[in-house]
Amino acid sequence: MTRRKNKHIAAAQQIIVSLGLPMAQQNERSALSLLALLNLTPGKAWSQAENPLIGITPLMDWTRKHYGREYAPNTRETFRRQTMHQFCNAGVALYNPDKPDRPVNSPKAVYQIESATLVLLRTFDTPKWRDNLTAYLAERETLVAKYAKEREQNRIPVKIGPGRKITLSPGEHSELIRAIIEDFAPRFAPGSVLVYAGDTGNKWSYLDTALLTGLGISVDPHGKIPDVVLHFTEKNWLLLVESVTSHGPVDGKRHTELAELFASSKAGLVYVTAFPNRTIMGRHLGEIAWETEVWVADAPTHLIHFNGMRFLGPYVSREG
After folding, report:
1. Do 189 and 303 form a contact (C-beta atoms < 8 A)?
2. Which of the 8 DSSP states describes residue 285?
3. Which of 92, 111, 218, 235 is least enclosed, having the fewest CB within 10 Å?
């Protein structure tokens, strides 16, 4: 049985090389991921390859059960970012084919071997393999472009200025970020400029580095930057907005973190927590820091002010 396991793993690595994936994916982890996508247990022939839907954790469990390879739970992101992401970009695997608009960070996210790739791999170790591989590679660029276009169609467009837009990964978190930029900003910071917008699928989705530098700010890429940063140019305020769909609001700890992160700002700092609706807001009311603002997307014309002398504005530190 051990010999069969090693033979399948070695064959999967050979296939990954043949498909032209980068050196960083030509390893045992990626080979096991490919075998899991095909549900190719040691006793099966390549002609018996299947195409189940499988998530990252089930995939890791599968490799342990069928191939005896144990991976620590904290390597889940390595599988996702260093193997499955590249498989999808190469058109070898599909991401959430059952529900393309599933949020990027959803625990229900699944992968599936791409249909043309499945047909090809079922001919591995047969006389047809070489000719089929040549034909597949000749068409793969078209396939990759096709799936990239489909992924783009499922992204959320966000207008950030006249004739300008960005796109965010699908999901309610991105929907709230769009509402902050398109509904909150024009009402409460008219004429403001987008400095930063986060994305669950790409942390640095949009960043105006020149504008930040001009405001005297140098942001550490590893720092906990808020979901949306807007420069309200008329007032010279920097609005730091947290989008809350599952994680917490601007509480006392987060207020301190943001104050330190943007301590060098030439613009006054305004702290805002945005919620999609009042139900979610109600869960976090006891956590919200004083001297901050709260906006709720389903009541976009209203702003909730947590204490202080101003309706909306920065607060000067009382220290010193």
Report:
1. no
2. G
3. 218
Contact 256, 195 (CB under 8 A): no
For residues 249 and 255, give the distance between their C-alpha atoms in angstroms, rounded to a whole number. Answer: 9
Quickly list DSSP for 211-279: HHHHTT----TTS---SEEEEETTTTEEEEEEE-SSS--S-HHHHHHHHHHTTT-SSEEEEEEEESSHH
Domains 2-153 and 158-305 share a fold: no
**pTM for the predicted model, two decimal places:** 0.55
At the top level of CATH, the class of 2-153 is mainly alpha
The CA-CA-CA angle for residues 195, 200, 204, to 5°, reads 35
* Ranges of H-type helices in the chain: 2-18, 28-37, 56-67, 76-79, 85-89, 115-121, 129-153, 172-179, 185-188, 209-214, 252-261, 278-284
Q: How far apart are CA 171 and CA 39, in angstroms?
A: 29
- CATH superfamily for 158-305 is BsuBI/PstI restriction endonuclease, C-terminal domain (3.40.1350.80)
Q: Where are the domains of the chain?
A: 2-153, 158-305
The CA distance from 175 to 101, in Å, is 12
Task: Return per-residue pLDDT of the chain as tens, 320 residues.
Answer: 688 889 999 999 999 999 888 888 899 999 999 999 999 999 899 999 999 999 999 999 999 999 999 999 889 989 998 999 889 988 899 999 998 878 766 788 999 999 999 999 999 999 999 999 999 988 877 655 665 666 666 666 676 666 677 767 777 888 888 899 888 998 999 989 888 888 766 555 688 888 888 998 887 655 688 889 999 999 999 999 999 986 788 999 999 989 988 999 999 999 999 999 999 999 898 899 988 999 999 999 989 988 755 556 676 665 54
